[in-house]
Amino acid sequence: MSVERFERDNCWHCSLDCGRIAELSAHEVCPEFVSGDELRSVSTIVADPPWLERGGGRIQRGADKHYSLLSADASVLVMQEWMKSYEIAENAHMYLWVTNNHLEDGLKVMRDLGFRYITNICWVKPSFGLGYYFRGQHELCLFGVRGRGSQVKTDDNGVSSIVKASKRKHSQKPDEFYDLVERRSAGGYLYMFSRSERVGWYMEGDEVGVL
Ligand SMILES: C[S@@+](CC[C@H](N)C(=O)[O-])C[C@H]1O[C@@H](n2cnc3c(N)ncnc32)[C@H](O)[C@@H]1O
C-alpha cells in the first residue's frame, strides 16, 4: 500500500466525517490513504451472499422479498470480479455467512474463491425464527484461510466462536460480529455483499449504505 500525504477534509475511505482525520495535522500522513489507481490491500474478507432463499407457502417470506438473490455459482463470479480490484494478501482469512440449507454450497464457494475451510462461528439469537424441523435461533459463518492463516491472526487469545446478539433487519449481521473479526484477523478488511458501512472497511454490494 503506498502512503501519500493526506490533503482532504474527510477520510478518503468512508467519505464521511469519521473523526479519524481530525486527529491528523495537515502534514501528517493518513495510513489509510491509497491513491485512486492503486490496488487496495486486504488480508481479511467477509462475504454474505444473497443465497437462493425463496421461502415456501403463499405468504412471501423469503429473502427475495428484501433483495435480489443469486445462485452460488453466480455469487462466486461476482465476488471474483470484485476481488480483482484489491490486492488480497497471500496469507488471508475469509468469513463466509451461510444459511443453514446452503451449508454445502458455502463450503464449495469458499473453495472456489481459493480458501480452505477451517472452522465456523455461530451467531446465537435470543428468540426463535421460522423453521420446519427446528425453530431457527442461530446463523453460521464459515471461517477459512488461504496460505498461512497464522500470519494474519492477531495476538488475542480470548476470541469466542459464539456471538450472542439480537436480530435487527432481515439478514443484517450484528455489530458484535465486526468486532470479532477485527479482534481475530488483521486488516485491511473487505466485506462483499454488504449493506452497511464501517470505518476502515472496504464494502462491495448493490446496497452499500442502505442500513
Ligand atoms: C444477505 S444480504 C447482505 C446483508 C448484509 N451482510 C447486512 O449485514 O446487512 C445480500 C446483499 O447482496 C446484494 N446483492 C444481490 N445481488 C447482487 C449483485 N448481483 N451484485 C451486488 N450485490 C448484490 C443484495 O442486494 C443484498 O444487499
Report on this model:
Helices cover 15% and strands 24% of the residues. It is of the alpha/beta class. The protein has one domain: Rossmann fold, CATH 3.40.50.150. Helix 1 packs parallel to helix 2 (103-112). It binds S-adenosylmethionine (SAM). S-adenosylmethionine is lined by residues 48, 50, 67-68, 70, 78, 171-173, 193-196, 205-207, 211.
The ligands found in this model are: S-adenosylmethionine
Level-1 CATH class name: Alpha Beta
The CATH homologous superfamily is named Vaccinia Virus protein VP39
Reported by name, the CATH topology is Rossmann fold
Helices and strands in order, then pairings?
Elements: E1 40-47, H1 72-83, E2 86-98, H2 103-112, E3 116-124, E4 138-146, E5 162-164, H3 175-184, E6 189-192, E7 201-204
Parallel strand pairs: 1-2, 1-6, 3-5, 6-7
Antiparallel strand pairs: 2-4, 3-4
Helix pairs in contact: 1-2
Features:
211 residues, alpha/beta, Rossmann fold, seven-stranded mixed sheet, 24% strand, globular, disordered N terminus, binds S-adenosylmethionine
Short description:
The protein has 211 residues and is an alpha/beta fold. It has three helices and seven strands. Helix 1 runs parallel beside helix 2.
